Automatic annotation (TrEMBL):
Belongs to the aspartyl/asparaginyl beta-hydroxylase family. GO terms for molecular function: dioxygenase activity. InterPro entries: Asp/Arg/Pro-Hydrxlase (IPR007803), Asp/Asn_beta-hydroxylase (IPR051821), IPNS-like_sf (IPR027443). Pfam families: Asp_Arg_Hydrox. This is ASPH protein. One of its GO terms (cellular component) is membrane. Keywords: Dioxygenase, Oxidoreductase.
Amino acid sequence: MIWATVVQLPKLGKASPAFAICSVDKCGCVEDTTCGEIDDSFSTQASELSEEEPQASTAVASVVRVKPWQYVEAKRQARPTTPPSRLSTAQVTAAPVVIKPHPVSQVPSPVTSRAPSQVPSRRSSQVLLPPGPPRLTQVQVISDQAKPPQGTPQIAAPAPALMAIQALRAVRSWAQELRLAALERRIRQDPTDLGRRVAAAAQLCRLSELDRAVPHLEAVLSASDDAGFLHHALTSAVGPKLFYQLPKLTAKFMRKIALTGECMEEFGSRSEFEERATVYHLANALVILKAAGEMQAASELFEEAKELVWQGKRPITWQSIQQTPAVHISGLSHRPFWSPKPPLADVLQENYPAILQEFAQLQQRREERLAAYPNLVESGVWDMLQLYSGRRWNPGPCELMPFTAALLQQHLPSADVPYIHYNSEEVVVFLLSPGTKVRLHNGGSNVPINLSLGLVGCSGSFCEVAGTPQPFEDGRVIAFDDGSDHRVWHDGAQERWVLTVRVLHPELVADPRRFFCRAFTRRTCFEAWDAGRARALGCEEEKLRFRGPMAHLSH
């Protein structure tokens, strides 16, 4: 059972009535806000507003987190109208509560009786009370029972979104508005305070009021040339989940960061086999613009990046707007879809029946799955299970698919050359649930080639690479460039599963000396190597030492 005390607050300005629940030391509903800070904000604003707004109505809301098949019993109880203290104790029993508990000695007895051995643990938290007469509701949730106890009046629980989650969001929104008003008052006093502008923008983004956040972010972008501060402002205020809702502003931040001297200097300290800050930020800006459909802005930024000059040379070697990864090895041929396919594709298709037979065992092991790349998921579920990654075979997943693992261990690693990223070669099983859409993205470099073997449920699933879609099919391999812009979606009725094997670009394997002799730092994003391995790659140390950065580039 769960007992919770819920207080309905008076309206504050135009805001809706909210519910405030907090622990003694820190509010469980407000991020980075102590009770003292809320009290300060409350005393400066809520007390003034309470004179203009009517007091809270006597209506009481039953707010608690339950599952749809559970039952809720509501009990109403009035409190005296005399001014209470700012904090009073709320009684809570049962373990799964959303607020931080602490022990108390007295707990109200439940409505329904229980045997002594079934008495739940006793917990308590604090309830923040504003000025004015509060209203109190106690809610009992009878959990894990198919039917309620006989003789107890019951009401069916509404959907969770209309209950605890909705109430806690209201609490968060209310408290953030209090803090936001204080921040904006200080910003009006000192418009040059960029730190408070970032804090205000972050609060507004959390409240989904992006139109109000944009002026603060634009002021920060205009006033600051500090790459670190701009990066902090963008990530703390907007964050990856909102990049696609503010694509042009996000791209402006990333462009300005990319063109700072601090970032440009990495053209001299890192080779093209590493993530250099300028290319990294421009690549992210481009993929966000393209994913959001802002192709005109993307084209302009792409042309600017290609014409960028550092020490008399153009260090960014992108050739196509549809292939703009953060690590671009110049000289590797670009084909969005590979035909003919690499030889390993035939191996996968020939062994499809055996792979499918043991896949059924893996399909049931949900605990082994990981979220693939959550920030790229527009809707649905995109999960993965990695058999081979980071140049190592993972024992757990390999035990579930022993034949597949043994088969691919004969082919990976494909060559004794450095990996660019941890997943330059990889074996992954990917799941898409029905209705899933994965945003446009690229794999971070133009080195891997993806070989995706459809396992089951591929009907209605598609992969679009560089603007050209191809359907997934059970038992068939799609081979495509991981560095090109691609997206996937699944309109089928069943879960779609594919086995993806990433292999190195065949030209890099065939002639490593041609490429790795340009790695003057002798390292990639994933690994480093010594002079001995450099010689094994065909790279003479003197050439590495004296060619210097970008010696292969034209003016």
